[in-house]
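Appendix B. Worked example

We walk through a single record from start to finish. Start with the input: the chain for Diadenylate cyclase, Hespellia stercorisuis DSM 15480, length 289.
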Amino acid sequence: MEQRIAQFFDNYIKVMYFPNVHVTDVIEIIIVAFIVYEIMLWIKNTKAWMLLKGMIVLGIFILLAAIFRMHTILYLARGSIGVLATGAIIVFQPELRRALEKLGEKNLLTNFLVFDKGKDNQRFTNRTLDALVEACFEMGKVCTGALIVVEQAIRLTEYENTGIELDCVLSTQILLNIFEHNTPLHDGAIIVRGNRITSATCYLPLSENMQISKDLGTRHRAALGMSEVSDALIIVVSEETGQVSVAMGRQLARNITPEYLATRLEQIQYKVPDSKRWSKWKGRQKNEA
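Next comes the structure step. The output line below is what the pipeline stores for this chain.
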């Protein structure tokens, strides 16, 4: 067995050569590397990550079958590739759709030509940030339930369409009035885009995670569900306890302070160029380890 493996690599090394590298080759390598990076970044944030692990294990198994000339296994593998690819597309159709939506939201030209962090790179102003923090904790004092979705790169048009269009400037008083008990707009979520409230009474998807705490109510489950299908930051005010929570990236931080909420909002206040996302991805890997 060891001799066969050694012979395989010896034959492979003999046919290796180092071609002349041209400028177009370098450009192609950069493009392919960028595409692979984007795919990996997307997979890391979806349940397709487990599928990728399974595909890697299956690929190693097929490679070993090729090395040891296991013809029956190779025949079955060739016949199963089309079925597996079709099945993966069907099972992960929602994730693929969201990936294409996210790609459509990108402005590649401005990503490569970011010179400063000016107003064009700002999602919302400090006034909007302060209004969000003040309103959430004012509602928390009197146990007024609230669900606020702060949009980032992925547009939430399909969820806006489930509610009532407002298109008004965000302020503390507006938020308090919307979520006041027994008012027409207090049920459901509001969606914030920039410095404006686009819609109210919006329906959000509930989390599919079966391992979340059983004491979480519908608002918290909707916040987690929204964080699973978008990059939005979702703020929840509990109607039972008055506690303020934040959901983002499939994670829920509960019973937070005003300072913590302000910090989280500051982190998404400015659009992040793609060149800085690699370090963020590595940071998430470290936290998950």
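Two observations about the output. The longest helix spans residues 23-44. Confidence is low (pLDDT under 50) at residues 108-118, 280-289.
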